[in-house]
Design a protein that fits this description.
The protein is of the alpha/beta class. The protein is 41% helix and 18% strand. The chain contains nine helices and eleven strands. The protein has an eight-stranded parallel barrel, surrounded by six helices. It has a three-stranded antiparallel sheet with strand order 8-10-9, with no helix packed on it. The longest helix has 21 residues. The N and C termini lie close together (6 Å). The model has no long low-confidence stretch (mean pLDDT 97).
Length: 291
């Protein structure tokens, strides 16, 4: 089982200007990862995004590190000022970057849903539009040798039943899911149940852990954010929270998953230590599951 790290895991250091995406490559190799997932292309030197992607790919080749996935944001309801055609074309340009990176897959959002005060529409009512956007993108991506997927992410399109409905509505061999075993807690869903529903559609997977506090108690303060149901979550080191990571790996194995597992660290702990401990724990779990 190959283990990757999402560049988002280094986001605190990237945002502070202490690392670049090139530094993420060397650090991931030094830590012992097999691959890296890039979240967006973030030139730090004035390069075009296309040129920067080429150089990232060359640096990965030099270091002997695979690119496991490319991840970007999208919104087929409200993105590009609500113009579906424009949003599809924008996301297609991101597919071109994934192809430059030689990433086998690209994750994009389907929608972030509706803002407070906007007219709310149930998921089934907007499903046809979301499916159209995803299908048009994946048809293009297939010509580039890139598989596309949505993640259980963004609150509105995050529940296991919603993302599986979307995959089935798109109904295309090139389209599947990025299953994030921790993110189901954002919509107060049991990760074991949710993973058992989504694993058969998985193209890619994130290992993530959270500390959970009940919404019936006091707000625990800095570092926590609210779930859709009003509970509190804080990212933490894999193995230090409540996500049953090893059991989720077992579910993926039973479903026949053959892809890469990527760490996405969102904790308050020291970034490099948190990622390193998470990798150590995740490797042990995969060995115990005999993945």
């Amino acid at each position: 089982m190959k283990i990757s790290v999402s560049s988002y895991s280094f986001q605190r250091l990237l945002s502070a200007g202490k690392m670049t995406q090139f530094d993420c490559i060397s650090k991931a190799k030094e830590m012992g990862f097999d691959a890296i997932e890039f979240v967006g292309i973030e030139p730090h030197d004035g390069s075009t995004r296309e040129e920067y992607a080429r150089r990232l790919r060359e640096e990965c080749d030099r270091c002997g590190l695979e690119v496991s996935n490319y991840t970007i944001s999208a919104d087929f309801l409200r993105g590009s000022n609500g113009d579906l055609d424009a949003e599809v074309e924008r996301v297609k340009k991101e597919v071109d970057l994934a192809a430059i990176l030689r990433a086998p897959g690209m994750r994009h959002d389907a929608t972030w849903g509706f803002r407070p005060g906007e007219e709310y529409r149930g998921f089934d009512l907007v499903l046809p539009r979301l499916a159209e956007g995803c299908r048009r993108v994946t048809e293009y991506a297939q010509t580039k040798g890139v598989r596309t997927m949505v993640e259980n992410h963004g609150f509105y399109c995050q529940d296991s039943d919603r993302v599986t409905k979307l995959v089935q509505a798109v109904n295309h061999e090139n389209f599947g899911l990025l299953c994030d075993m921790g993110n189901f807690l954002c919509v107060d869903e049991d990760p074991v149940h949710a993973m058992s529903q989504t694993a058969p559609f998985a193209f890619y997977a994130h290992a993530k852990d959270f500390i959970v506090k009940s919404g019936s108690g006091a707000n625990p303060g800095k570092g926590f954010f609210g779930t859709r149901g009003g509970n509190y979550l804080r990212g933490t080191i894999i193995g230090h929270g409540v996500v049953p990571v090893r059991q989720c790996l077992s579910i993926l194995k039973t479903a026949g998953y053959q892809g890469t597992i990527a760490i996405e660290f969102e904790g308050m702990e020291d970034v490099l230590e948190g990622i390193s401990i998470g990798l150590e724990n995740l490797r042990r779990y995969t060995e115990e599951v005999r993945f």
